[in-house]
Design a protein that fits this description.
heterotrimer; B: Beta-Lactamase; five-stranded antiparallel sheet; C: alpha/beta; Rossmann fold; 11 helices; about 15% strand; AB_hydrolase_fold (chain C); AB_hydrolase_1 (chain C); Sigma-B regulation protein RsbQ (chain C); catalytic activity (chain C)
């Protein structure tokens, strides 16, 4: 059995969504729902914290791209934090290593975001 | 308070037995009824004297349940000393039936000899109605499952070539390992002649599964087939595919694929291969001397997700005895024993130890490798291998 | 082909003694013999097995093509005999396996020394003057009953798997699988069992045969035992003082003695 958990943190510096476990076709819809539920405001940055992600297949990649599309269509930003090595490898393989903005940790992602989240 | 207590005290064991909310029945080991409570007599509509010493428990059952009793219930009770929760029907004196749940235990004497069988019977009218519903739902689900499997296998066949064509001077082999009989997989491959001596091939993997993925697979296959004829090279073919898939997007979740597409031309005693990758795991080349290498196609982006996707083209030469292997990520994402995933480097290292000289042998070896993963392969896996025949090997 | 594994074959008892092959009937597995095995194994070499779809047989080996007739099961019996190189076998078939034994013995009579048909019935359906004991409607009801017990079966298994601390003699690993049958296979087996008509095969039996019946049996009534005895030339008929369809459980000593007496006789 694979398992997947999603935790949404509504931090002062903006929303952080933690994906942990296995992100595949079974869990991808849940991952995406969590991002949609945030309804990011323009100028905000959504951080996907992937530190606990054990596995990510093509459906998972699809969910990450969709998450970015959702954020961008709301004029918000999206960053990946704590990308595990296996996923970093995959992102290189599929030519998306520069497509996503990535940071080592969620805190670094938030610190790097130029706009004030409180303004939105 | 006082009266309640005295009523409780007067609640004799006898009364509890006779008027319990369930039926009680004691029988000899051969099933002959020795004792029965008023509740059960009331349900059955029998007089006590009609049953005691005259009838067996099985006589109260309709014939189907009687057979079940003789072939299952009684043997299991004998062997285990108890049996519980069995759904049966009882036949009332007036011929009507009553759904019940039956539990029995064998009472043994101090020296372990079986003495009698105690049976408790619950009215299960409600539960049986519920079970009938479950049963009907199960039967429908089973029929649905058969139908879905048939549909999936039919659809799958239309997405793969029925057989590979003969390519002069080459050995070609393919393999498809579906992860599930219920769902159409997202993997595809093809090999077909272009103009002159040139052949085109591709292998890819559409994100997701099921009918929606099958639609994308179908679109992808036909776009690649058409574009391969019209476009000058593999990278521009993949660009065409990228545009076609982007136009076909619905909703936020992209439907993309990863693929390797290549052209094969005879050159000297071998063949020249030009191929482009769109985010697909690197192809593997196994040289005649046994050395295996991964073709570096990094930088090629997945197809159908980004408006201006880039694709990377590489060229290589296959000499007699060399094999080019394309595979989908079911292979390199398989869980090997334990939880470790198998990756491209593992595949290359494994291939390095192989002693194979043709596409057919390579595909056979990889399919054995897949078998060894057993349940570890939770995604579909497609394989396509091309090798240049060794000189003097004229087998068709 | 590995019949030993497919049919979960067990061999116990005296190595050099005559071989008694025990074939269980519909509804259970080789554990049904466990109360007669201690007595029989003192004098015979005992071979036990599970029909495909029952007990610990290899369920993957089951196919509707092979097992919708009793011939497929008879074939399995012959394959077990061949693989273990069993000769001069005393084949004991209970319930539906009595007819499976008849089919096997008619196919390869040289393989078998004797047949013991325990509570046999060549045809469960009434047919003209023949009284099998059941009407077609009865059998349909049985098949329905198997359907509706689908959930009951799983419940019935629960205490079995948990073991039975009060009865250590029946607790143990083997019991975990006792009478466990795949419900889907059981439905097909029930249909095969109760709709087969092997009356014509009885006259072809050339192996020495004993018919053991119970004094009262709801599944195989005494007139059916008599019918089998009448049709198999030279057969002996033994009526056990036992009630029900499974005398090896309800009267194990008597049943073991009757099998041993016939099997051991010259």
């Amino acid at each position: 059995m694979t398992s997947f958990t999603v935790t949404t943190l509504d931090l002062e510096a903006g929303p952080v969504v933690e994906f942990a476990g296995e992100l595949d076709s079974a869990s991808a819809p849940r991952a995406l729902q969590a991002v949609e539920a945030i309804s990011p405001r323009p100028g905000q940055q959504v951080v996907l914290d992937l530190t606990g992600l054990l596995f990510c297949d093509s459906s998972g990649i699809s969910a990450l791209i969709a998450a970015r599309n959702i954020a961008h269509s709301a004029e918000a930003g999206l960053a990946l934090a704590g990308v595990p090595r296996h996923l970093a490898r995959t992102l290189v393989l599929i030519g998306l290593d520069t497509f996503f903005t990535t940071y080592a940790t969620a805190a670094q992602a938030q610190a790097a975001w130029p706009e004030s989240p409180a303004g939105g | 308070m006082e009266t309640t207590f005295s009523a409780l005290l007067e609640d004799s064991a006898e009364d509890l037995y006779e008027n319990a909310p369930c039926g009680y029945l004691s029988t000899l080991m051969d099933g002959t009824i020795a004792k029965i409570n008023a509740t059960l007599l009331g349900w059955l509509g029998h007089e006590r004297a009609e049953l005691l010493g005259r009838r067996r428990f099985a006589d109260l059952l309709p014939v189907g349940d009687r057979i079940y009793h003789e072939t299952h219930f009684a043997p299991m009770l004998r062997m285990h000393g108890e049996i519980g929760g069995i759904a049966l029907e009882l036949v009332r004196a007036d011929g009507t039936r009553m759904a019940v749940l039956v539990s029995s235990t064998v009472k043994t004497s101090a020296n372990g000899t079986a003495q009698l069988i105690r049976t408790t019977i619950f009215d299960a009218g409600d539960r049986r109605a519920y079970e009938h519903e479950l049963l009907r739902a199960r039967q429908e689900a089973e029929q649905e499952r058969d139908r879905v499997q048939l549909l999936a296998s039919t659809l799958q066949r239309t997405l793969l070539p029925p057989s590979l064509p003969d390519v002069p001077g080459m050995d070609v082999a393919a393999y498809y390992h579906p992860a599930s009989a219920d769902e159409v997989g997202g993997d595809f491959y093809d090999l077909f002649p272009l103009t002159g001596d040139t052949w085109a091939f591709f292998l890819g993997d559409v994100s997701g599964k099921g009918a929606e993925a099958a639609v994308v697979t179908s679109l992808t296959r036909y776009t690649l087939r058409a574009a391969a004829v019209q476009e000058p090279g593999p990278a521009s073919v993949l660009k065409r595919l990228n545009t076609a898939l982007l136009k076909d997007q619905h909703g936020a979740t992209p439907r993309f694929c990863t693929a390797i597409h290549g052209l094969l031309e005879p050159a000297g005693d071998g063949a020249k291969v030009t191929l482009a990758s769109g985010g697909h795991p690197p192809a593997l080349v196994i040289r005649h001397n046994g050395a295996a290498e991964l073709l570096d196609t990094r930088g090629g982006q997945l197809i159908g997700a980004l408006p201006d996707a880039r694709f990377v083209e590489v060229e290589l030469r296959l000499r007699p005895g060399d094999t080019l292997l394309l595979y989908s990520d079911g292979l390199t994402e398989a869980r090997t024993h334990g939880r470790v995933r198998y990756d491209e480097e593992d595949l290359r290292d494994w291939a390095d130890t192989l002693d194979v000289g043709s596409a057919t042998e390579t595909v056979a070896a990889v399919s054995l490798l897949l078998d060894s993963f057993g349940d570890g392969v939770d995604d579909d896996t497609a394989l396509l291998a091309l090798s240049v025949r060794l000189l003097g090997d004229e087998r068709p | 082909m590995d019949a030993r594994r497919r049919n979960n074959v067990t061999v116990i008892g005296c190595e050099d003694a005559p071989t008694v092959l025990l074939a269980h009937g519909f509804g259970c597995d080789q554990n049904l013999w466990r109360l007669v095995v201690p007595d029989l194994s003192k004098r015979f070499r005992i071979v036990l097995f599970d029909h495909v779809g029952s007990g610990r047989s290899d369920v993957a080996a089951w196919s509707p093509q092979r097992y919708t007739t009793l011939d497929g099961y008879a074939e399995d019996v012959l394959e077990i005999c061949a693989e273990l190189d069993l000769r001069d076998v005393v084949l004991v078939g209970h319930s539906v396996s009595a007819m499976i034994a008849v089919l096997a013995a008619n196919r390869e009579p040289e393989r078998f020394a004797k047949l013991v048909l325990l509570t046999p019935s060549p045809c469960y359906l009434d047919d003209g003057d023949y009284r099998g004991g059941f009407t077609r409607a009865d059998i349909d009801e049985l098949l329905d009953s198997l359907e509706s017990n689908y959930l009951g079966w799983s419940a019935a298994m629960a205490p079995v798997i948990a073991g039975n601390p009060d009865r250590p003699e029946v607790a143990g690993e083997l019991e975990a699988a006792f009478c466990r049958t795949d419900p889907a296979i059981a439905r097909v087996f029930a249909r095969t069992t109760f709709l087969s008509d092997n009356r014509a095969d009885l006259a072809d039996v050339t192996v020495r045969t004993a018919v053991l019946q119970c004094s009262s049996d709801a599944i195989a009534p005494r007139e059916v035992g008599q019918f089998v005895h009448d049709r198999i030339e030279g057969s002996v008929l033994v009526t056990l003082d036992a009630i029900g369809h499974c005398p090896q459980l309800s009267a194990p000593e008597q049943t073991a003695a009757a099998i041993a007496e016939f099997a051991g006789a010259r």
